[in-house]
Write a structure and sequence with these properties.
CATH superfamily of the largest domain: Nitrogenase molybdenum iron protein domain
Strand content: 15-25%
Radius of gyration: 26 Å
CATH class of the largest domain: Alpha Beta
Largest sheet: 6 strands, mixed
CATH topology of the largest domain: Rossmann fold
Helix content: 40-55%
Distance between the termini: 75 Å
Number of strands: 14
Number of domains: 3
Oligomer: single chain
Shape: globular
Structural class: alpha/beta
Length: 431
């Protein structure tokens, strides 16, 4: 049995706002028809940004990096090394296959990288350097030949740290360009931006809607929603740590759900008290406070089994486990984007530095998909070869029967012909 020690103040919005959808449709259509001119018009309108070229030159990139403290550069390099290391471990787990499944029947698959990827790196309230690490570095490890990256200007200027992160991650082209116009330019192409095969990266509601509308014309990584965190805690958990970690994710945005599921009423109530104490001193308290007020929950359950059940029901983007038996959760939990085990681990490590990818499923999508990984930038394609006339005859006869059961006479005749040729003749309809 479960009961709420704190409930949400309002339900999360799960449908795309009509105004957002309509506005995005208009921008995409304008970029499709007007190319660079439309992109420039929207950049001026939304970001007051209209440089001679949105694409940065090598000189501009070098200048941006030179303006940064050496420590910032060193930290970017270290984090990207962590991301690259894990991506390479993932790549090593992926193998091409080829097997002779019957005499002379060869089946196989190969994993081929996507040719070109567009990485959208958010700016605005938070310039997400980490998204450059996660997307560009991982795509390059996968073997993507052309990765272009875009990010919005910051207060009418080049965002130096984001540019450095994109460059050091291996971006082949860097554009200071934000919003729907950037996603549209990469997806449909303009006079100065060659289209890509896939778009990856988080963004606001407009960017997310642009990816949704363009999906099919280009591939996308995920349909992204607000950041989510769910913490499972028993009576061994430290309420202060729980409170800090809930707030760390709540500051992503005012619509970010932050949920605690606990078997201990004391831990639940002490966590609420700690959040109330910590919030006023948090520099992002307006955002985090709104998220906690409107989308924060503390759920008391009778057993750890019920806590696991609630967690799988929510299928949260991030799940943290503060219990006495951490590995029990690893074995039994099913629905999550990423799992963080123990007090010495936190979601923010995954967000920023540890090396696993932070582009993860939200809004229950963890029930059917995982997050961004090196395999997302690969296409697994199959091939077939038959070297045996006898096997071709057997398959041809089988195809003839199977296809005619579905009224596909043309398919059946493809099988008839090969079966007959294997016997040294031609089918009656071909004579």
């Amino acid at each position: 049995m479960r009961r709420h020690l704190k409930s949400v103040a309002q339900q999360s919005i799960t449908t795309t706002d009509t105004d957002v959808r309509t506005r995005v449709e208009t921008i995409i259509a304008d970029v499709r028809a007007g190319g660079d001119a439309a992109v420039r018009r929207y950049s001026e309108q939304f970001d007051s940004w209209s440089p001679p070229s949105f694409r940065l030159t090598s000189t501009e990139i070098d200048a941006a990096m030179a303006r940064l403290p050496r420590q910032t550069i060193d930290d970017i390099v270290e984090v990207q090394r962590n991301v690259e290391r894990f991506a390479r471990l993932q790549l090593e787990s992926i193998h091409d296959i080829e097997h002779e499944v019957a005499p002379g029947v060869i089946l196989g698959h190969r994993n081929l990288p996507i040719a070109s990827v567009g990485a959208y790196i958010p700016g605005g309230r938070y310039p997400l350097l980490a998204s450059a690490h996660m997307i560009i570095t991982t795509a390059k490890v996968a073997g993507v030949q052309r990765v272009i990256a875009t990010t919005p200007p910051t207060a009418g200027a080049i965002p130096d740290a984001s540019v450095a992160a994109m460059h050091l991650a291996g971006a082949d082209e860097i554009y200071v360009l934000g919003g729907v116009q950037a996603v549209a330019a990469m997806s449909v192409g303009t006079e100065s931006v060659d289209r890509v095969d896939m778009i990856a990266g988080p963004g606001n509601a407009y960017v997310a809607e642009a990816k949704r509308q363009l999906f099919g014309e280009v591939g996308i990584d995920l349909f992204a929603g607000p950041t989510e965190v769910l913490i499972i805690a028993d009576d061994t958990a430290d309420p202060l740590t729980v409170a800090v970690d809930l707030l760390s994710q709540a500051e992503h945005g005012p619509d970010s759900p932050a949920v605690l599921v606990t078997t201990s009423e004391q831990v639940g109530r002490d966590t609420i008290t700690a959040i109330d104490r910590l919030l006023p001193g948090l520099p992002t308290h307006e955002v985090a406070g709104a998220a906690w007020r409107d989308h924060g929950e503390v759920i008391l359950v009778d057993s750890i089994d019920e806590a696991y059940a609630v967690s799988d029901e929510y299928a949260s983007e991030h799940v943290q486990v503060f219990t006495a038996d951490l590995r029990d959760a690893l074995d039994r939990l099913q629905n999550y984007g990423a799992l963080f085990l123990g007090e010495q681990t936190c979601v923010s490590y995954g967000d920023k530095v540890i090396g696993t990818n932070h582009v993860l499923p939200t809004r229950g999508a963890a029930r059917y998909t995982g997050g961004l990984w090196v395999g997302k930038f690969l296409r697994t394609v199959t091939y077939q070869e038959i070297r045996s006339a006898e096997s071709s005859r057997e398959l041809g006869e089988l195809l003839g029967r199977a296809a005619r059961a579905e009224n596909f006479e043309g398919h059946a005749r493809s099988g008839d012909l090969r079966a007959a040729k294997a016997r040294g003749t031609l089918p009656e309809w071909a004579r």
